[in-house]
């Protein structure tokens, strides 16, 4: 064998790992991007979780599971098998792309297809592993290697469950499938793979011998882990939750048994590098998360199992994955001891800084009693700690490649690389104690400053509450009261507390559909409480009377107010600083019109074009699709959009559009609408075209749920659909409306056909979608066609001389009608609310030669007009209620 052959083989092996792990790097970048833009992506939480679990973890398991199988069996497959293994990785990632795209687009067929491809790729991997294990000669670790295949066998079952959850199942089954999914995918596929790997890999990372008896004990614990995962999965499917809890306890015991031997090695050879320290941190989070899951199930809180996702995935899985990659990537790149050392040194950059940032951030995020601000700070810090792996990894690859190229250049020149004698000092791979202490202190300062800033700014934080409280001598007593949210009221809506008592409120959301919260003017905040959930609020020592309310937009105006009276105190004190009818608090929508100095429209130029990044809503009305059954999915999304030049506000939408998607059909067509609520509060939908009982299909559904709304359109017309959740005016004003056009049976074709949906906007503060006081006073700030006040002045509708143009108009309101008029033109056909008032110049009685100037519609009415332009030019369409036109209800039609 020539001296070049070992180097060539080393390069080939490193090349295979680089090709196979390339998708991991791509998904890592995608995950970082998603972390920044998730607010504007549908199903973003699901996407982030699955970019990590499928994109990073599953890809890594298929690559490194193969690597460790070869290493432990001492059996390397032929080079021809590498192409097949890479092809399998590509199939897996194709399935992940289809699955994620299907979930974002709410396309069930793609979700099912993607899950099937992912499950198929992993099944292919299992078959290949089994063949390799059977063909291998007996080795010390052969009994352990088979658990790579056992662990992988859990994922196809999890993929099936995930597909069902993705397309929607009833609530009870959603809870069962979520627990099943967690068991087989996280505890089975990920957990058993990780613990199988660490039997030998932990010693390698520590550069220490294995503990005595470790492999035998590991084999026994892996059996127990596998059996307990099966028990958790089956018990979850059948709803036998006590068995589920017991099986989780068994799983926890097996994990601790496994970790006992790993801890023994760490005691004799403490972790000193980022790889071993990161893996060690992950191994601490793993039993904590499993124990938490067992406690939740045993306590009857199965629906809260999602709470363990962060410690299981971010705390345990992510830290173990990044730790393993920090060690494996330089190792498999090879290039000789000097090259590997160069890569390892870079992988340890900022080691302790990154670890403290991640783990302290997770602790801040998970601390009980934390506020929304501290949760954002905690998650951001942990995310930053993980993101720093990318530049460190890039530096490591560059450093290692530089040494490899330098060595290759010397060999090409006929020179041998300089040998390093045993006496020559080498740079330490592991960071020194001083560097670790400095990194830990720096990260701790970042965490303390960020968290302290959040506590200082957040009005619901203990610091702000302490500043707002009146000094009073504490009595040492605690008054505990029970308060429920029922419909749009607090029951009771007032309590009396002795001065100096500590007040604890046991707050239960007894509303079946709506999310609620309770905010007090001393800064106490319950946070958002899901239907059926109960939280205990510590309002502190009460020294003055307080006002409270629900901060969900519109709920306070609907009557969700609360009062805390001090026994013997002055009733005039209620509310204190910042309270009262015009008081301001988080989500307050009771604003005084006189406090504003001027209406928001004073600064709006309704003659200016939209901002450059605004995409004009296409007003062209497409023909009715073929077929008699139309299946659509409406996803509730709460986002931010521009309503007029320079005016951006939160909006609540169907499918991210304002108005929602336009539907069209013919009399007798059936519509099957799936409504999916991915907002932060309860929402619903009411189709005026549906002749059905509203009890079931129009009910409000809480976040995370969905319903199917099925109806047959029996009559023609321009029908409105909208959210029917209270306050209905607020939900409609926020953007939750759209049109369903049902063609009259004899509707002729025309040259151009447009749809304009008119609505009003009542601008609240910059972070509020509407102002209930303005809605009640019927004082809109903007009146718009298709969701933007000036879009059709910049991008006019178009027509040609002599063409017949039909414009459908639907009024969404919530409270204002329209007098639709086209300046310079007349209507020869007017269709309103299911009937013709004028058709080709003939009225309902057959009279000829008539024309119309206005289509008058009340809120929720619809119709269309037809006209033919005799001359070229720019025509203006307006709401002839000119006060509304001057608030934006105007646009152009360019006629050539």
UniProtKB/TrEMBL annotation:
Pfam families: Cu-oxidase_3, Cupredoxin_1
Parts of the chain that traverse the membrane: 20-41, 47-65, 86-104, 110-127, 147-167, 179-205, 217-235, 241-262, 274-298, 310-329, 350-370, 376-397, 436-457
Stored PANTHER family: FI03373P-RELATED, MULTI-COPPER OXIDASE
Cofactor: Cu(2+); Cu(+)
Domain annotation EfeO-type cupredoxin-like: ranges: 475-538
Entry keyword annotation includes Transmembrane: yes
Keyword Oxidoreductase: yes
Annotated family: Belongs to the multicopper oxidase family.
Keywords associated with the record: Copper, Membrane, Metal-binding, Oxidoreductase, Repeat, Transmembrane, Transmembrane helix
Source species taxonomy: Bacteria, Bacillati, Actinomycetota, Actinomycetes, Mycobacteriales
Segments forming domain Plastocyanin-like: 640-745
Biased composition (Gly residues): 575-588
Residue segments, region Disordered: 570-612
Designated name of the protein: Copper-containing nitrite reductase
Self-association and partners: Homotrimer.
EC number: 1.7.2.1
Catalytic reaction equation(s): nitric oxide + Fe(III)-[cytochrome c] + H2O = Fe(II)-[cytochrome c] + nitrite + 2 H(+)
């Amino acid at each position: 064998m020539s001296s070049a052959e070992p180097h060539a083989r080393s390069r080939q092996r490193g090349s295979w790992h680089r090709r196979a792990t390339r998708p991991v790097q791509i998904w890592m970048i995608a995950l970082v991007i998603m972390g920044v833009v998730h607010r504007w992506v549908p199903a973003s939480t699901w996407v982030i979780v699955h970019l990590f679990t499928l994109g990073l973890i599953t890809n890594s398991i298929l690559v490194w599971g193969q690597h460790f199988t070869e290493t432990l069996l001492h059996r390397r497959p032929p080079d021809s098998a590498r192409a097949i293994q890479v092809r399998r990785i590509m199939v897996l990632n194709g399935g992940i792309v289809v699955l994620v795209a299907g979930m974002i687009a709410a396309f069930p067929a793609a979700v099912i297809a993607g899950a099937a491809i992912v499950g198929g790729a992993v099944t292919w991997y299992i078959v290949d592993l089994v063949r390799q294990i059977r063909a291998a000669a007996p080795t010390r670790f052969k009994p352990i290697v088979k658990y790579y295949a056992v662990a992988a066998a859990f994922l196809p079952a999890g993929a099936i469950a995930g597909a069902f959850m993705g397309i929607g199942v009833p609530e009870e089954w959603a809870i069962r499938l979520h627990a099943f999914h967690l068991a087989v995918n996280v505890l089975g596929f990920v957990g058993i793979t990780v613990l199988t790997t660490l039997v030998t890999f932990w010693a390698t990372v520590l550069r220490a011998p294995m503990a005595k008896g470790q492999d035998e004990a590991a084999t026994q614990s892996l059996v127990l882990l596998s059996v307990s995962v099966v028990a958790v999965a089956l018990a979850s499917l059948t709803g036998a939750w006590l068995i589920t809890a017991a099986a989780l306890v068994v799983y926890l015991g097996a994990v601790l048994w496994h970790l006992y031997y790993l801890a023994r090695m760490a005691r004799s050879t403490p972790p000193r590098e980022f790889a071993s320290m990161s893996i060690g941190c992950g191994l601490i989070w793993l039993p904590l998360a499993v124990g938490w899951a067992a406690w939740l199930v045993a306590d009857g809180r199965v629906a809260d199992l999602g709470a363990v996702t962060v410690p299981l995935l971010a705390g345990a899985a992510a830290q173990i994955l990044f730790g393993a990659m920090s060690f494996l990537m330089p190792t498999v790149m090879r290039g000789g001891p000097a090259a590997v050392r160069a890569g390892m040194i870079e992988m340890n950059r900022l080691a302790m800084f990154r670890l403290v940032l991640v783990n302290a951030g997770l602790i801040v995020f998970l601390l009980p009693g934390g506020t929304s601000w501290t949760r954002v700070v905690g998650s951001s810090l942990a995310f930053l700690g993980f993101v720093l792996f990318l530049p460190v990894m890039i530096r490591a690859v560059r450093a290692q490649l530089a040494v490899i190229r330098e060595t290759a250049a010397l060999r090409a020149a006929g020179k041998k690389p300089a040998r390093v004698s045993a006496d020559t000092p080498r740079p330490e791979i592991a960071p020194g104690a001083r560097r670790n202490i400095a990194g830990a202190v720096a990260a701790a300062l970042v965490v303390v400053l960020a968290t302290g800033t959040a506590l200082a700014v957040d009005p619901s934080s203990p610091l702000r509450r302490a500043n707002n409280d009146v000094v009073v001598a504490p009595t040492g007593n605690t008054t505990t009261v029970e308060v429920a949210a029922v419909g749009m009221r607090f029951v009771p809506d007032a309590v009396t507390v002795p001065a100096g008592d500590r007040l604890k409120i046991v707050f239960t959301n007894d509303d079946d559909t709506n999310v609620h919260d309770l905010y007090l003017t001393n800064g106490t905040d319950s946070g958002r409480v899901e239907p059926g959930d109960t939280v205990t609020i510590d309002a502190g020592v009460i020294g003055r009377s307080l006002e409270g309310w629900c901060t969900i937009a519109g709920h306070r105006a609907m009557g969700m107010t609360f009062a805390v009276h001090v026994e013997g105190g002055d009733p005039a004190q209620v509310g204190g600083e910042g309270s009262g009818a015009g008081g301001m608090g988080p989500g307050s929508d009771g604003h005084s019109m006189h406090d504003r100095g001027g209406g928001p429209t004073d600064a709006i130029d309704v003659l200016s074009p939209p901002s450059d990044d605004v995409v004009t809503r296409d007003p062209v009305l497409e023909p009715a699709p073929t077929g008699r059954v139309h299946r659509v999915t409406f996803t509730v999304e709460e986002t931010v959009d521009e309503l007029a030049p320079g005016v951006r506000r939160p909006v609540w939408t169907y499918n991210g559009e304002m108005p929602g998607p336009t539907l069209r059909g013919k009399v007798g067509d059936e519509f099957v609408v799936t409504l999916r609520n991915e907002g932060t509060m309860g929402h619903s939908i009411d189709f005026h075209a549906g002749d059905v009982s509203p009890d079931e299909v129009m009910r409000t559904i809480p976040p995370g749920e969905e319903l199917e709304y099925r109806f047959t359109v029996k009559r023609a017309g321009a029908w409105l659909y909208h959210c029917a959740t209270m306050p209905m005016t607020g939900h409609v004003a926020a953007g939750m409306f759209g049109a369903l056009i049902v063609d009259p049976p004899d509707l002729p074709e025309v040259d151009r056909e447009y749809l304009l949906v008119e609505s009003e906007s009542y601008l609240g503060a910059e972070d509020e979608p509407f102002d209930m006081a303005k809605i009640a006073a019927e004082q809109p700030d903007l009146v718009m066609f298709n969701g933007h006040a000036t879009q059709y002045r910049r991008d006019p509708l178009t027509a040609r001389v002599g063409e017949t143009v039909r414009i459908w108009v639907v009024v969404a309101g919530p409270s204002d009608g329209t007098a639709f008029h086209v300046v310079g033109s007349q209507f020869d056909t007017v269709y309103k609310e299911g009937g013709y008032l004028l058709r080709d110049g003939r009225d309902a009685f057959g009279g000829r030669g008539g024309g119309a100037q206005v289509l008058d519609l009340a809120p929720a009415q619809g119709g269309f007009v037809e006209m033919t332009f005799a001359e070229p030019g720019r025509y203006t369409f307006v709401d002839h209620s000119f006060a509304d036109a001057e608030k934006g209800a105007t646009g152009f039609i360019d006629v050539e």
